[in-house]
Amino acid sequence: MTLTDLANPTRFLALTTRILPWLAGATAILLAIGLYQSVMAPDDYQQGATVKIMFIHVPNAWLSMFVWGVMSIAALGTLVWRHPLADVAAKSAAPIGAAFTFLALVTGSLWGRPMWGTYWEWDARLTSVLILFLMYLGLMALWRAVEDPSRAARAAAVLTLVGAINIPIIKFSVDWWNTLHQPASVFRAGGPTLDKAFLWPLLVMAIAFSLLFITLHLAAMRNEILRRRVRSLQMMQASSSRTFSAEAGSASCEGNGSKEIGIA
């Protein structure tokens, strides 16, 4: 099955029906393994047990940016390639990305309090992630505010591509400005600087959360396709009802006119 085949919503629904149970099972297993490894990981010599917040915070922070990247590709699909499922993919991903971003902000604040002495500081990294969260909420509000689905899709696609400028700002904010955050310690030119006792649980959790996103995203896309089908059927039914009422009214008027002519 090619990507062109998946442009057909019916084939996409059939595919998701087959693979979602397997994805959900793999996600649950990896999350269980990752959480066990996170609990069993040693305490840091400086941060103590609070370092274990990293295993939740970092995957959520990575996915908050990754999901916006997925939405940006979907936005191109809407504006350039007119892919039938592009807007469905973007709209379904937005609430999930917002949830990941919110969890990244909350866990980051909980981690920052014992490390920095404050829950919040208006530095470049924290501020840019907060802006990302607000952009997610803005996109969700836009899809709800515009009734015409095609207009909402185009407007959301443009806003998504404009908002993508914030992703490199988040990524390189620790290099461009003086922030509370440390530089990258996993994906860097010289290799990871984390000890393997922390690196492996972090990578397992990152994969588990990535599978969680894929599972939730496919399920949300399936629900969105079904919701749009129901909406289309309701509109067709309403249109048929109006047409029937208009025809019935016209027939009634013609009947009354014929009686009047006969009386005359």
TrEMBL record:
Pfam families per UniProt: Cytochrom_C_asm
Signal peptide: none
GO cellular component assignments: plasma membrane
Membrane topology classification: Multi-pass membrane protein
GO molecular function: heme binding; heme transmembrane transporter activity
Every Cytochrome c assembly protein domain range: 8-181
Name of the protein described by the UniProt record: Heme exporter protein C
Gene source species: Bradyrhizobium ivorense
